[in-house]
Backbone:
């Protein structure tokens, strides 16, 4: 039976008087664990965490069927758990963040086939759970898949066209409803297994009808740097939905070339809270398009950061000799492996389409409505049509609009979303001996790249400090290898983090021609795989500290896995969502401090960890009661939990 | 949604007919047997006047824009349609509604600031930690089923004001009438444009240009001086409503309004009903004594201790 919001009782007679809150605590009407079974952990970010779930099967009978308004059954769910504002200690009601309020209200209000479908919101145990329909893929994952070495090849033109068409349809709906998304990027655009595009993550989206204050006042920085429109980079106080169209242009370019078109470095906000000018990002745009000119963008001079524009050329001279969008497009299409009979390149209209999205002047930039009527969709795609995949049409014949299934006619199967599933038994933790002497580790590097030379064996190439051997020591080092000259060189972890934008190889013979550096080293303390992501930046890493042998880095996902295993060992309930166990009667009132700490404690990026925090952790280890307290099980954070190595 | 009221959650889930409202309220009382007799409360409209004017007071202390206040007032109305008022501390609900509405209208206020001002204004709040408002916020969002986007008559009022060429005085008056609609059930019954038209109608009919004010809306004169409506009698309004022919003579502006209404697809009965609702509200307001309501509400909060 489908859950219907409106048939939910307005107030059951036996509901405790929940609102006289000076006396009684807030009690949720629905409990997340009563209705959903978590099957895996998908990801975590600044906003919180996302889990995959299915409907819970009651002990006696069928799992309830949840219907989408269109009539289809929702098979699986993605549950987004918002991170509480304040980490650590016991959770408090601190007031819900603006971003969560926006997302809750907008997702409840909006409904469109190209928008992620919200099933329900559950407020429980001082946490917010938003239950969405699950989508198997997202554009970032699809880009990765095509980018990866084994499957390297372009995204088929028909799929590209369908993706863009659906994305723009959803965006038009948002804009017609006075909503600017403000965070469009490949990772936020979901793709279901049936090829439907779903715009997700409305955490930065807001209504812009007659705002009470300039949009800038509410949020100083919007849109992920690579997708940020030029008017935002130039500090515009009032901006329009056109910023979303710029992001769409960037996404389109990224789908074409499989890498971000304007991959700048974000200038960090300084302590004075002044928003810095994003010179590097502006330069990256300039490298392709040239810098904006006031005859092409009449209001350019009134932009607050207009004076800073001159400084871009000082740091990045290539903006004076821009590649030009046309050349960029031709190079990309040529270099990307489109082959005429089986995998035709995108039609030429695609270039014009891209040009109109990446238009500097927001007033001239194509709107979502115009984009949907662009020849690329209504008469384009001839070349795509010739492949006989049913999308587009052969020139002269009636042209079909793009399909609402972006996989239509394609053979490719994309891998399912990666997630950490509940293990049957705890993973084996390797003994310290296996890591001793660093042999397995060195062997692995050798098997990856043969004949390595390492001129920087024992000193950091940046700061010249002596390097202690990597892995499990207090000052872990990073090793990187140049793809071209096979030089492997080493640097201090902290130096490496500072230096991630230094993309050339430091080997003297190689310096001129290479920009491609691969982070090879620094392995996860649990799975012993290298800690790296697609950009070679160390991220998604959790620092786990061991009292005996110093801090250790592990993959976030491995850490989650280990947490799960640990929790199983200690037989805690609700392994996944971090809810206190609900006993009969006592309900949610007393969530043990320890369980809150357990969920929040060892998270955060490596670079942020500093001495005092570690001391805190150590103290916590001693103080925490490892045993049951008040009917709840707390996870014992003993040294063993943290370290595979020392006894 | 912001552009399309008819697709909004407000139209679909938070607009009712009069019999539906009566039924919901009857069920609410029935599901809490004994409470009503244990805590007798004055005329529900007087309670509304009390709550809404006090919400306005808090908003004024926080320097809030009317749009945020209006949203908070709607949250309050919807909330008490689902939860029996006698089970709540109305002061805490008011503070929470305002805190939430500010976030929703993109002009957030710090929770500590809202709590501080509310506690100073209402000693009966009995809350000295922000967690109380935070917890109440959960209850409120849950009760409102996270349908938090609200459509107000103000936007349409501005559009129509231009359309009918209202003077700025008339616009101010119409705006004040709209502010008063939150005391009535109108926002739960009709789409925002009905209230906007009713307000324009009242502003034009009852205050023809060049004449002294016949009507003073309450929110403009403040809750402490309910004498403003004295000049207005229900009879006058009803006779003005009596016939379209009669209305046309009332002036060119009204003529234009009436012509427009006849051509448009606005439900005239709703507008007439809204006008009457306003008129009877102002009559009711004359009998309003703040002290009586304050004491009754105060008893509720004491009971909660």
Residues:
């Amino acid at each position: 039976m489908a859950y219907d919001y409106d048939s939910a009782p307005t107030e059951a007679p036996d509901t405790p008087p929940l609102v006289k809150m000076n006396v009684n605590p807030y009690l949720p009407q629905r409990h997340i664990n009563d209705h959903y079974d978590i099957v895996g952990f998908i990801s975590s970010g600044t906003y919180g965490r996302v889990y995959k779930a299915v409907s819970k099967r009651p002990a006696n009978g069928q799992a309830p069927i949840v219907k989408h308004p269109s009539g289809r059954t929702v098979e699986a769910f993605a549950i987004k758990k918002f991170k509480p504002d304040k980490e650590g200690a016991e959770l408090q009601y601190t007031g819900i963040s603006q971003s969560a309020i926006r997302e809750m209200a907008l997702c409840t209000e909006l409904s469109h086939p190209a928008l992620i479908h919200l099933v329900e919101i559950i407020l429980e145990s001082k946490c917010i759970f938003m239950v969405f329909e699950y989508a198997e893929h997202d554009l970032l994952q699809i880009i990765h898949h095509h980018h990866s070495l084994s499957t390297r090849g372009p995204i088929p033109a028909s799929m590209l066209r369908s993706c863009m068409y659906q994305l723009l349809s959803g965006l038009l709906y948002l804009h017609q409803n006075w909503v600017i998304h403000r965070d469009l990027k490949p990772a936020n655009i979901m793709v279901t297994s049936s090829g439907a595009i779903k715009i997700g993550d409305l955490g930065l989206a807001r209504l812009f009808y007659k705002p009470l204050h300039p949009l800038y006042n509410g949020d100083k920085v919007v849109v992920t740097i690579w997708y940020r429109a030029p008017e935002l980079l130039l500090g515009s106080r009032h901006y329009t939905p056109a910023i979303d169209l710029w992001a769409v242009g960037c996404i389109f370019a990224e789908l074409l070339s499989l890498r971000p078109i304007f991959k700048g470095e974000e200038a960090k906000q300084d302590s004075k809270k002044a928003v810095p000018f994003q010179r590097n990002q502006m330069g990256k745009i300039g490298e392709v398009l040239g810098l904006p000119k006031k005859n092409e963008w009449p209001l350019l001079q009134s932009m607050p950061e207009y004076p800073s524009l001159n400084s871009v050329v000082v740091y990045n001279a290539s903006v004076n000799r821009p590649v030009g969008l046309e050349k960029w497009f031709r190079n990309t299409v040529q270099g990307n492996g489109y082959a005429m009979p089986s995998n035709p390149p995108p039609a030429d209209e695609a270039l014009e389409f891209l040009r109109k999205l990446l238009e500097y002047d927001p007033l001239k930039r194509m709107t979502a409505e115009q984009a949907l009527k662009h020849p690329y969709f209504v008469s384009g795609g001839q070349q795509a049509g010739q492949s006989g995949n049913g999308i587009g049409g052969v020139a002269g014949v009636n042209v079909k609009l793009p399909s609402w299934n972006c996989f239509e006619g394609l053979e490719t199967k994309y891998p399912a979303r990666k997630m950490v599933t509940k293990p049957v038994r705890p993973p084996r933790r390797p003994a310290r001996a296996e890591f001793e002497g660093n042999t397995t580790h060195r062997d692995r590097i050798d098997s990856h790249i043969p004949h390595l030379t390492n001129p920087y064996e024992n000193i950091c190439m940046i700061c010249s400090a002596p390097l202690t051997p990597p892995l499990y020591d207090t000052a872990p080092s990073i090793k990187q290898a140049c793809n071209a000259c096979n030089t492997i060189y080493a640097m201090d972890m902290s130096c490496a983090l500072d230096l991630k934008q230094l993309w050339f190889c430091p080997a003297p013979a190689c310096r001129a021609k290479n920009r491609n550096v691969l982070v090879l080293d620094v392995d996860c303390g649990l799975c012993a795989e290298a800690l790296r992501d697609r950009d070679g930046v160390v991220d998604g890493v959790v620092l786990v500290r061991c009292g005996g042998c110093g801090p250790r880095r592990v993959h976030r996902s491995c850490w989650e896995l280990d947490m799960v295993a640990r929790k199983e060992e200690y037989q805690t309930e609700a392994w996944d969502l971090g809810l206190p166990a609900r006993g009969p009667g006592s309900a949610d009132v007393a969530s043990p401090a320890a369980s809150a700490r357990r969920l929040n404690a060892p998270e955060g990026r490596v670079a942020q960890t500093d001495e005092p925090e570690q001391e805190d952790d150590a103290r916590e280890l001693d103080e925490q009661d490892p045993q049951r307290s008040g009917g709840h099980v707390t996870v014992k954070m003993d040294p063993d939990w943290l370290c595979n190595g020392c006894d | 949604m912001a552009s399309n009221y008819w697709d909004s959650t407000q139209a679909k889930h938070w607009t009712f007919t009069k019999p539906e409202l009566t039924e919901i309220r009857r069920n609410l009382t029935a599901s809490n047997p004994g409470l009503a007799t244990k805590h007798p409360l004055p005329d529900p409209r007087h309670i509304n006047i009390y709550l809404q004017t006090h919400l306005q007071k808090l908003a004024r202390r926080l320097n809030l824009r009317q749009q945020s206040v209006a949203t908070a007032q709607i949250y309050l109305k919807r909330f008490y349609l689902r939860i029996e008022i006698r089970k709540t501390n109305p002061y805490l609900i008011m503070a929470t509604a305002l805190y939430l509405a500010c976030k929703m209208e993109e002009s957030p206020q710090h929770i500590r600031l809202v709590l501080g001002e509310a506690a100073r204004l209402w000693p009966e709040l009995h809350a000295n930690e922000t967690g109380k408002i935070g917890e109440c916020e959960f209850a409120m969002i849950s009760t409102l089923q996270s349908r938090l986007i609200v459509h107000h008559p103000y936007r349409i009022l501005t559009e129509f004001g231009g359309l009918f060429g209202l003077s700025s005085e008339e616009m101010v008056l119409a705006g004040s009438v709209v502010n008063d609609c939150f005391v009535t059930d109108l926002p739960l019954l009709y789409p925002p444009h009905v209230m906007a038209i009713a307000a324009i109608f009242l502003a034009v009919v009852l205050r023809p240009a060049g004449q002294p004010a016949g009507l003073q809306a309450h929110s403009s004169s403040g809750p402490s001086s309910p004498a403003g409506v004295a000049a207005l009698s229900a009879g006058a309004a009803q006779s003005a409503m009596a016939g379209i022919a009669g209305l046309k003579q009332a002036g060119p502006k009204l003529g234009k309004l009436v012509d427009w209404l006849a051509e448009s697809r606005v439900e005239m009965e709703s507008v007439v009903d809204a006008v009457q609702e306003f008129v009877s509200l102002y009559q009711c307001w004359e009998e309003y004594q703040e002290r009586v309501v304050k004491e009754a509400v105060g008893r509720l909060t004491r009971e909660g201790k």
In short: Confidence is low (pLDDT under 50) at residues 209-246 of chain B. The domain at 16-150+290-303 of chain B is CATH 1.10.472.10 (Cyclin A; domain 1). Chain B is about 65% helix and 0% strand.
